[in-house]
Amino acid sequence: MGKLKNIEPSKLSIFSRISNKFRKLYRMKLYQKILGISIVSLLSSIIILTFLTIYYRNEYFFIVALAGILPVSLILTVIFMRSYKNSALRKAFLIGMPIVLFMSFIFELIGTNQFIILYLSYAILIYLVAVNLFLHIFRYDLNLVIVLFLLITGLYLKRMHAAGSSIIMTISLFLLAAFLILIALRSFKIKDNRFLSIVMFSCSIILAFQFIAMVWKIQHWPGAGLLLYISMPVFIIATLIILLTLPGSNFIEWTREQKKILLRGLLIPWLFIIYILGSTMLIPPYDEFKPFFFLRDQDKKVHFNMKDYEIENRNGLE
């Protein structure tokens, strides 16, 4: 006891927090421990099969890892997370999405020749997105941000001409539109901030219409051009209105929850649409997919290892 008295309160609190976390892990029920060990084993086996694919140059290992093991890992993870309600672990799954996405950007910039590693990072990102959607299914504003990661994954897979990329993009865009409509309906419950209620309702409908227009354009369905011609001017006008009216709405004195609703439910998807439209319409194209143009080497040329053929000069002919 004499040694504990000499420990500073801050160090003692950190020590107690760590010990409490280990105690919670120890107090888990038997089936939760079995689920946790099974999930770790399955995810580890996916990584091992990926490296076996690279070593033996046999894509069968990777197909087994993604088509067979990953869905089982997803189901077990959802069951485990729903039964073992740990806020720190849930935050770790949320933070894992931007980390995995950033690592995939690094792999892309490095220009690795092992596309299997890129596909693995995108598969893990889809796994994290699916888990977070099930965990936060009734938090529409947070789900909106989560589905944006799924849309970014679909955009990158589309640029890599991967199978199923259009399906991922279509599903994510429809989910975004659905969550935005739900946010618009829930905006009527905001009683103490009329400006936020009106802005969230009108802008959520505009964003949902914009995402539906993008689905029509991606799938090349009839009427896609008309939807885009209608949605773009409305989106630009709404952007100008927000920029002009938000400073006078006494935004600084809003509650923390109201600011969080505005950030997750409106500003993040709004800025994402601005980026897509800006990179698509304002930046000159040079390849088949413009929103992520900065990841491509613009000076890259294709050579066919052919030498220039010179025609001999005969009888004074040139």
Task: Describe this entry's structure for a reader.
- With 318 residues, the chain is mainly α.
- It is 73% helix and 0% strand.
- It is built from eleven helices and no strands.
- The longest helix has 27 residues.
- It is flat, with a radius of gyration of 25 Å.
- The N terminus is likely disordered.
Structural class determined from secondary elements: mainly alpha
Number of helices: 11
What profile does the largest beta sheet have? Answer: none
Low-confidence stretches: 1-5, 285-303
List keywords for this structure.
single chain, 318 residues, mainly alpha, disordered N terminus
Please render the helix and strand layout as text.
Blueprint: H1 2-5, H2 9-26, H3 30-56, H4 60-83, H5 87-110, H6 115-135, H7 140-159, H8 165-186, H9 194-218, H10 224-245, H11 256-281
Helix pairs in contact: 3-4, 4-6, 5-6, 6-7, 7-8, 7-11, 8-9, 9-10, 9-11
Brief write-up:
The chain is an all-alpha fold and 318 residues long. It has eleven helices and no strands.
